[in-house]
Specification:
The chain is mostly helical. Helix content is 51%, strand content 4%. The protein is built from 15 helices and 3 strands. Helix 2 runs antiparallel to helix 3, helix 9 runs parallel beside helix 11 and helix 11 packs parallel to helix 14. The protein is elongated, with a radius of gyration of 26 Å.
């Protein structure tokens, strides 16, 4: 059961009313306490905003999620739960920006009332409640209590659902409350209902949404030599990128099938990531081996390990940043013959 901060706020409000606002020493101490707490709060919020901005730029967070609304009093218990369709990367950015805005607005309001009306109750309450207010924010909680903002798609810090988790008891709406009908069939519909034909892009994105639990057969069944390097419209993702970061058991075999079709691991998405970047960031050591192996994609010869994305990061930098030491080891071992100048294994150096 979630902690209810009202159990703290009510006693604090009652106690704050008994503070002697005419005593200059008391007022001075309250001002110092408020200034110290809010300074830490502002620094914390700015740190969260920087981390969230970086997370929003990650290719793996450009996926659709379905976010539940805040709980409302007197809500009809029999009503369908409404979920808003959002892009995870955009929702991260907006939540961080909202946190900064609400924190600064609260400071301006409290200080303004104190300077204009001499109110000290707000100083006392906010000095105590500020940490509790911050802890309620999903991003703050994730950074300090849930290991950071890596793998947000799996952590579900916003209480969201994926497309495949939506049931007949859920209702999808847009930002204005208009109902959205999903293309994907949801649980509860009759088995005889006709399923809408999906495009290659839909199947590719659905495969990525399912992560390690994905069945790659539908996607592989749609791919051939002509469309194997198809890239999604918004993000420029290709099948080899998806398989490199997916982590599903059948992904490695699929990668080798894609090679036979002519998959190009050198293609980059909108963030400048090639397939090796995907494997490095998502911790898929087996995928990195396939991409770098001489008998598979021969990524060292292609120079996949040397490509820097739009942030100037190579694949090994992403692997180190995410703590994926097994991928770091794979890349370093593959680079070793090139670094030592050995040509016995057939890996040529790029000029």
């Amino acid at each position: 059961m979630a902690f209810n901060k009202m159990f703290v706020m009510l006693p604090v409000m009652l106690a704050a009313r008994k503070i002697d606002g005419e005593d200059p020493e008391v007022v001075f101490m309250l001002r110092c306490a408020y200034a110290a707490v809010q300074t830490v709060a502002v620094l914390t919020v700015l740190f969260i905003y920087a981390k969230a901005s970086a997370a929003a730029k990650e290719g793996g967070n450009a996926v659709k999620i379905y976010v539940p609304p805040p709980p409302q009093p007197f809500q009809d218990p029999n009503a369908k739960t409404q979920y808003q369709e959002k892009l995870l990367s955009e929702h991260i950015q907006k939540t961080a920006l909202g946190l900064v805005g609400s924190t600064l607005f609260g400071i301006c309001m409290t200080v303004g009332l104190h300077m204009w009306k001499g109110m000290i109750v707000g100083l006392a309450i906010q000095s105590v409640m500020c940490p509790f207010n911050l802890a309620e924010n999903a991003l703050v909680s994730a950074v300090f209590l849930k290991g950071g903002l890596a793998n947000l798609k799996e952590k579900k810090i916003f209480g969201e659902k994926r497309r495949d988790e939506i049931t007949a008891q859920d209702e999808i709406v847009d930002g204005e409350g208009n109902k959205i009908v999903l293309k994907k069939e949801i649980a509860g519909k009759k088995d005889s209902a006709k399923k809408e034909t999906k495009s290659l892009e839909d199947v590719l994105l659905d495969t990525w949404d399912l992560g390690a639990d994905a069945d790659v057969k539908p996607l592989m069944g749609m791919l051939n030599k002509k469309n194997v390097n198809f890239a999604t419209k918004d993000n420029g993702w290709t099948a080899i990128m998806i398989m490199s970061g997916l982590g599903a058991k059948s992904a490695i075999g699929a990668m080798r099938q894609l090679k036979d079709m002519g998959a190009n691991p050198e293609k980059t998405d909108q963030e400048g990531w090639n397939a090796l970047h995907w494997a490095a960031f998502h911790g898929s050591a087996d995928a990195a081996k396939v991409l770098l192996s001489k008998k598979d994609y021969d990524g060292i010869t292609l120079g996949l390990h040397k490509v820097a994305d739009k942030e100037g990061k190579t694949a090994i930098v992403h692997a180190k940043d995410e703590g994926n030491s097994d991928v770091v080891k794979v890349i370093e071992e593959a680079e070793a013959p090139e670094v030592t100048g050995g040509a016995a294994d057939g890996l040529r150096k790029r000029k």
